[in-house]
User: Fold this.
Amino acid sequence: MAIFTRHGWLARASMLASLVAILAIVAPPAWAVEVYLNGVKLTGLKNAELNNCQVRFDGNGDVQIMSPGYRIEYGSDGQPKVVGQSDMASSRQAVVKPKQRYVLVYEPNPKVNFAFEVWINGKAFRKIGLDSGRFTVEMTQDMTVGDNVLRVVARPGDTVPGGSETDAASLRIFRGEAGADGVFRAKTPAVWELVRAAVDRQLLDRTYTLAIE
Assistant:
């Protein structure tokens, strides 16, 4: 018969606790789960809340959150955030997801007074007011692999004194990837761009075809 003293039990309990702690540190997770919002992988997203969403686990065990109206924007620090409101009624999902991510970048100029409307594949994507500041917004969830139809309407506001041909505002589309730190890194040059100068005063309504990979 084995006889254990109180000291022996304490020693064994301490060794068992240490072993459990070590296993918890070195043991790998059973699987790595990725999270996607409207087909866009969420990397580095913090302090976000989404409402009226459809959530499912796909064949890879990844979490797919569907809620059109939400999209990913990047701040000046390169970190992502969720903007917009849920609109489940207009649900849309790419049949074939692009391999890379696409963003629209708006660069305003105080001497260029234009408002813009951006449409993708017949659906309103973004309205840009006369006083809108610089922004970067994700477009991937609204695109499919192959030809995509981009429509841009540019409406001039009142002429700003002192503007010249060198004063310009631009809309550009870049493709790229997000690194492990969650920061999106665009590849140059842009895959599409539209530039309006201060001397441009005419209404513009154009349609473009974007080939997405």
In short: The chain has one helix and 14 strands. Residues 35-212 form one domain. Residues 6-26 form the longest helix (21 residues).
